[in-house]
Amino acid sequence: MSGGTAPGPSAGPGAAPDRAPAMTMPRTDPQVDLTAAERMIRDDVASAALGMEVTELRLGAATVTMPVTEQMLQGHATCHGGYIFTVADTAFACACNSHGPVTVAASVQIHYIAPAHAGDLLTATARETSRWGRNGLYDVEVHNDRGILIAQFRGTSRTIERRDS
Fold first, then answer.
1. Cβ contacts of residue 43 below 8 Å, gap of 6+?
2. Structurally, how many domains does the chain consist of?
3. What Cα–Cα distance (Å) separates residue 105 from each residue in 66, 80, 102?
């Protein structure tokens, strides 16, 4: 997930960032230990500040939604690609961290297919396609609430040692 801090929903331009509420996450499979993913989601201030919600989390898969607001529009009056990337990246992070060890992106690629607009609800659905050693390959599709494919994202993950700072 990218760095930077976004102001909280109540902050105006130039206001100091607020600590956004934690993202919510459903317990979809009580037999799977999702502690690492749950910790990552709980501590993800950036995604929560953008209004993202994890609507599904299973081993190797996740679904995340994000509303497109007026503040996310770029000069062509469509959603800035960085926000579309961010919702896809968050779904990817949830899916690859569902296995337990701390896992990060090694490389990613995104293809923008159609524009998103203010008022759209974007849904990013990530699924694991392959795992080998400490690596994983994940595909993410981002659709709007009318079912239009907005972007396709592919990420390669790498499991690392957790370093608490």
1. 22
2. 1
3. 20, 21, 11
Is-contact 161 105, C-beta < 8 A? Answer: no
Tokens of 18: 């607020």
Could you list the beta-strand ranges (E) of the chain: 53-58, 61-67, 103-112, 121-132, 135-143, 149-159
| Alpha-carbon span 108 to 89, nearest angstrom | 9
Cα 127 from Cα 141, distance rounded (Å): 9
CATH number at residue 125: 3.10.129.10
Instruction: Encode pLDDT of 132-142 as tens digits.
Output: 999 999 999 99
The model's pTM: 0.81
